[in-house]
Amino acid sequence: MTRIAAHTPASFLYLAAKADGGRTLGLRRADSERHLAEQLRRDRLVALRTWKMPAWAASTPKLKLKDHAELNTQLAQLLGRGVPLVEALDVTAAAVSEGTKPIVRRMREMVASGTSFADSCQSAGVFDRVTIAVYRAAERSGDLGGAAKTLAATSKRQLALTGKAATLMIYPAIVLSISLAVSAVMLMVIVPKIGEALEKANAKLPALTRTLMSIGITMRDHWMGLAVGLLILITLAIMARKRIGEAATILSRRIPLLKEVVLAQESARFFTVMAAMTKSGVPLSDALGTGSQAIGHPELRQQLTTLRTRLVEGGVLRNLIDNVTALSLPTRRLLIAAERSGDLESAFESLAADLIEETDRRSSRLLAALEPALIVVMFLMIGSLMLSVMGPLMKASGQAFQ
Question: CA angle, corner 163, sides to 161 and 168, nearest 5?
Fold first, then answer.
């Protein structure tokens, strides 16, 4: 089968009639308006109007890890039972999520017309380099079902890693959001009311209480402008989310405890990719080239790229592994022993599993360390506001009983 150049389909906004007589408006990607009409007809829809979206307004398709895992699981089960690839894609299109169905159907059409499965994945534009490389190698070896099974397991491992990272991000975000909301309510409602009551009672207020009262009253009187400003900040944060994410990633590699979690997570991702590619028959040098690009840790990525370059130039792997100092010494020793015994595939598999467990352990330790730190932050935010009003209130109460 000849290799084709990757083609990115256009985005179309459409108005279609449903089988029950209703109307629906949606956005889909297709090669042409005719191809879009065929997609809609399969879903029992009739295109009434279609508008081709300009390139700048067209959204880039993304396939979530969950969809990757489901797609590969379905293909592994069907191909493993001897179902032809075109029929397997037909069944898979009915089993995956709604957003993934048009992608699988387009791949099915390309395969039916004589395109290789790896090239159809590349043309779809939603698969990463690892997936395409694994399927290309599997087509050469004739074990497409085994490759799908391997990729399904890889996606599930990466889902586990992503879930741990999300937990580390969500927990502090929820605590800090609650603290900010409570502090804002206290500052705008409680502090001004108690402060005004104490002023009427001719109580002498400390400078901190008067300052917080002034801030709270200003916020209360201009809450509309404050809300608009907050909305603008949120909008700007969404627009700059990529740069904010990059800055957060750089910062995460420098914070104690967190940087160990990040390195373990990146190492686990690398060995997960290497296990999938070597199991599918991808040459080690090609697997290293793709695997090093799948991680974002700059030091580890640079050292792995250098290892791959020197390996291609004729270096001995067991000698080059020791230069990858970003990996722990036990990891390097295991890889050297596996290379000598000719069993790197099993070593990659076991290291991926071990590093996922290590990521879990380090994440649990980090959360345990975060809990008291967040309690201190909450006290500084909420406790300072409470003390600013409770101190004068208790003093005024004491003077009243004298």
Answer: 100
Let me know if residue 379 belongs to a domain. yes
146 and 173 assigned to the same domain: no
Q: What is the pLDDT of residues 45-95, one digit of tens each?
A: 888 888 887 754 555 456 777 888 888 888 888 988 888 998 988 888 887
In a domain, 267, yes or no: no
Contacts of 147 (CB under 8 A, 6+ apart): 134, 135, 137, 138, 280
- Do 233 and 312 fall into the same domain? no
Neighbouring C-alpha atoms within 13 Å toward the C-beta of 244: 9
Measure CA 315 to chain center: 36
* Residue 364: inside a domain: no
Q: What is the mean pLDDT of residues 145-149?
A: 86
Q: Say how far apart CA 149 and CA 167 lie, in whole Å.
A: 27
Quick one: pLDDT at residue 306?
A: 92
C-alpha–C-alpha distance, residues 228 and 373, integer Å = 31
Q: Pick the range with the lowest mean pLDDT from 45-59, 271-285, 375-389.
A: 45-59
State yes or no: pLDDT of 370 exceeds 70. Answer: yes
Per-residue pLDDT tens digits for 49-60: 888 877 545 554
Domain that holds residue 41: 10-52
Torsion of CA 175, 178, 179, 184, to 10 degrees: 160
CB of 374 closer than 8 Å to CB of 176:
yes
CA distance 231 to 233: 5
Q: Are residues 252 and 281 in the same domain?
A: no
Q: Which pair of structure tokens corresponds to residue 397? A: 């109460």
**Distance (Å, whole) CA 335 – CA 308:** 15
Residue 358 maps to a domain: no
For the chain, the average pLDDT equals 81
